[in-house]
Amino acid sequence: MDRTRIVYERGGSGSPVVLLHGLGHRRQAWYPVMGPLMERHEVYALDLPGFGDSPAPDGGRAYDVPSLVEAVRRICADLGLRRPHLVGNSLGGAIALELGAAGVAASVTALSPIGFNGRPAGAGARVLARAAQLAAFVPTPMLQAAADSPPGRALARRMLRGEVSDPADRHLAFDARAIAAGSAYVRLAPYAAAYTFSAPEVPCPVTVAWGDRDRLLPPSGARRALRRIPHARQVVLLGCGHIPMSESPRIVAAEILRTIGDTRSRGGFLSPPLR
Predict the structure, then answer these.
(1) What is the pLDDT of residue 274?
(2) What are the boundaries of each domain within the chain?
(3) Please, what is the end-to-end C-alpha distance for the chain in angstroms?
(4) What does the pLDDT look like over 14-25, one tens digit per residue?
(5) Strand partners, 86
(6) pLDDT reported for residue 161
C-alpha cells in the first residue's frame, strides 16, 4: 500500500494527535473537534486509503484491517511522529487500538470501535456487508435517488445519529458512490464485519467511548472492550449515535484531552486498572 499517497490535514503545535475516521467516512469527520485539540497539540486528520482523497490500493494488493494498520503505522513513521496519541472512530478505532497494542501509540481514544461485536451484532454486520456487495450491482443513479428520498434520509439518520429528529440533520443522506462496484467500502466491509480485536494487551492509556444511541454498533460492545482491555476508561456519550464527534464535539474533544492527560500523569502507561 502506497502510504506516501495518504492525504492528511495538519494544524496546531505540541505533542502529535492522529485522527482516524470510520469505514466510508473521511478526514472531514473530525473538523468539529480539531479546533479545541489544535489549541494544545499538533493534529493530523488522515484520509484512510480508499477514502476521501487517498487512493485505494489496486485489486492485487492486500486491503483489509491489518493492511490499514500497517499503512497508518508507516505514515506516522514517515512524518516523524514517534508514539503519537491516536484517536479513531469505528474502523479507525480498531486501527488505533491495534497500533496501541503494538506499542506505537502514547494513548488511544476509541469511539465505537469495531471488533467487539456479540453474535447478533456480528451477524448484522455481515448482513450489511453482503447487502453492500449486492447493492453494487444496482446502477448508481438509482441508488442515489433512493438515498435522497425521504425514507432513505430517515434511514441514514436512524443508523448514524443519536437524535433522529434534529433539524440540522434533515439533509443527511448516504452517498451511493460509496457502494459502487469495486469501491473501497464494498471491498473492506466484509473484512470489517469479520474482524475481532484479539490483542493480549494495550500498553498505554485507553479510553473506550460509546454513544448510548449507537444503532450501528450496539453500546454493549463497550463491555466486551473492557473485558479485553481491563485498564481502559469507559465513557458513555449520552444522546450520541455512531459518529459522536459530529453530535457532541465539545465532549468528545474533552475526553480525548483527558486521555492524553492520563499519559502525562502516569508516564505513558497505566498500572492498576482505573475502575
Answers:
(1) 28
(2) 3-120+195-265, 138-180
(3) 40
(4) 999 999 999 989
(5) 18, 108
(6) 67
Give the containing element (helix H, strand E) for 259.
helix 249-265
Can you tell me the distance from the alpha carbon of 39 to that of 55, in angstroms, rounded to the nearest whole number? 30
Distances (CA, A) of 111 to 115, 132, 160, 209: 12, 23, 13, 5
C-alpha cell at 139: 446502477
The three grid cell numbers given for residue 150, joined into one nine-digit string: 425521504
| CB contact at 8 A, 17 and 106 | no
Residue 48 has pLDDT above 90, yes or no: yes
What's the mean pLDDT in 185-198? 91
CA atoms within 13 A on the CB side of 194: 9
pLDDT of amino acid 59: 74
| pTM confidence score | 0.85
Q: Which triple of cell numbers denotes residue 231? A: 485498564
Amino acid identity of residue 179, one-letter, is: I
Secondary-structure class of domain 3-120+195-265 per CATH: alpha beta
Q: For the segment 75-102, what is each residue's pLDDT rounded down to a tens digit?
A: 999 999 999 999 999 999 999 999 999 9
**Residues pairing with 233 in the sheet:** 207
Using the CB atoms, write b or e for 78-104: b if 16+ within 10 Å.
ebebebbbbbbbbbbbbbbbbbbbeeb
